[in-house]
Amino acid sequence: MNVPSRSTEDPLLVRAALIVVAAGFLGLFLFVPLVAIFAEAFAKGVKVYFAALTEDNARSATLLTVSVAAISVPLNAVFGVAAAWAISKFHFRGKSLLLALIDLPFAVSPVVSGLVYVLLFGAQGLFGPWLKAHGIPIIFALPGMVLATIFVTFPFVARELIPLMQAQGSDQEYAALSLGATGWQTFRRVTLPNIKWALFYGVILCNARAMGEFGAVSVVSGHIRGETNTLPLHVEALYYEYNSAAAFACASVLSLLGLVTLGIKTFIEWRSGHRRSKH
Amino acid sequence: MSLGFTLTYLGLIVLIPLAMVFVKTSGLGFAGAWAAVSTPRVLAAVRLTFGLSLVAGVINCVCGFLVAWVLVRYRFPGRRFLDASVDLPFAMPTAVAGITLTTLYAPKGWIGQYFEQAGIQVAYTPLGILLALTFIGLPFVVRTLQPVLEELDAAQEEAAASLGATRWQTFRRIVFPPLVPALITGSTLAFARAVGEYGSVVFIAGNMPGKTEIVPLLIITKLEQNDYAGATALAALMLVISFALLLLINTLQRRMARRHRK
Asked: Contact, A233 vs A65, CB < 8 A?
């Protein structure tokens, strides 16, 4: 950290002006929207707020959102650990290509992420006719929404673990193995305790994104009220019905999830004293 | 085994589905694909999406630099709080950001009413789209710039100052140049995100074909009209552009890392 000495310090007036401009900008641009969500949500009173959250369609949307996350987050967590393990403990060709491919979903528009599964499993898709003949619903049903969510949140856990496991190296694992531990014992007793915080953080980020995903899920959901609407899609439906208080009530729940995630992130960064990756 | 699993999962979830876009597009033939993406409506959407994403990238470049500078260089009460709030656009689900910005900047909204008095409409115009794209892109620039700013060599600055350079000269000649790669990387990340963004834009956009319709929305519209060929060709175009951007970002980041090691 720089401790500004006199000669490299900006003049007081410049400093004050820049701080005021930056704080004003962030306040107006980022903080006011946050306040607005809760103001709009409670605009018609606490009763309306809780009624909007406990109403049948909101409940089933919440349940669906939780189910989608409950399936996709563990899968991506297992993948993240496996990918980080493979990349950090073994030497092989094409490692940097693999790293780039893992990041790929970040570069793809959410809408395209949903579209690819429609092309595979939709009515006119590659497997569409076969799926229809066998009565297996994927698109406009839970499996499609899970797939789209997995795609969008694919890199989160892996990205947190890879740099950490690369930095830690494999000395401890070698020691454990040479002392007679099995591979699984080594992983559980040596590797897992070393990575547990990064894993936890990756899972939290992955979960927040999974529950809040809108574009990709919107493409593969049938938008059926009470059946295939996740919480973000329910927010959209309410908003377009001009039911602003209810829309913002549900939005406030999603924002709380985001705020808690942000709080945990800030706490972990503060604990470990360094900044973590973006996205 | 873990490598085998990694590759299988990656292939099944990411690579094969993405490859489908190109398989389908190549099925149209070059002429067919070109015909699908060269209609006036598509061209207008492409121009709007990329044009506004570029402007948003430039705005974020300036505002992000200012914010990162203030957060790293100055100590003041509430700094930690401001620092954490930079991540709000990442933390808020896109649909939530979308309806919130629309409500705030609508003609009768908290902020929109003042623009209305000045005769400027924000929501449902390209200006509204620009606002949403700037909103979601800001953290990219700040978060890319912050670590580089933190690790700048103070000795060079002190040397410049002790050799009689003014503060502005020191900033322009010593401080700013090493920040340029990070600034470009951050803005490119923001641009790439803006191009594909859907949830936070679609509510405020107005979605008038040819005027305020963005490419991701047009893809969805084509899908809903069962125009699979059109949607796929447009998706292929988007994918090619985002891959090119990804390549550019990776190259920039590698160059930054190399410079850092020196």
From this structure: no
The alpha-carbon radius of gyration of chain B (Å, integer) is 22
Q: What distance in Å separates the CA atoms of residue B93 and residue A138, rounded to the nearest whole number?
A: 24
Q: Which helix (H) or strand (E) holds B150?
A: helix B126-150
Probe site for chain B from A12, A119, A159, A274 (most B CB atoms < 10 A): A119
Mean pLDDT by 10 residues, chain A (279 residues): 58 92 94 95 95 95 97 96 90 87 91 94 87 89 95 93 89 89 88 91 94 95 88 96 95 96 87 56
Q: Looking at the whole model, is its pTM more than 0.80?
A: yes
CA-nearest residue to B79 within chain A is A23
Three-state SS letters, B155-200: HHHHHHHHCCCCHHHHHHHHHCHHHHHHHHHHHHHHHHHHHHCCHH
Predicted interface score ipTM higher than 0.85: yes
Tell me, what DSSP letter sits at residue B172? I
Query: How many other C-beta atoms are found inside a 10 Å radius of the C-beta of residue B39?
Result: 11
Cβ-Cβ contacts under 8 Å between A and B: the total is: 258
| Residue in A5, A119, A259 closest to B21 by CB | A119
- DSSP-assigned states of every residue in B233-258: HHHHHHHHHHHHHHHHHHHHHHHHHH
Among A22, A124, A154, whose Cβ lies nearest the Cβ of B70? A22
Write the DSSP symbol of residue A136: -
Q: Is the dihedral of CA A278, A279, B4, B7 positive or negative?
A: negative
Cβ neighbours of A87 in B, within 8 Å: 6
14-73 of B, contacting A, C-beta below 8 A: 14-18, 20-21, 24, 63, 66-67, 69-73
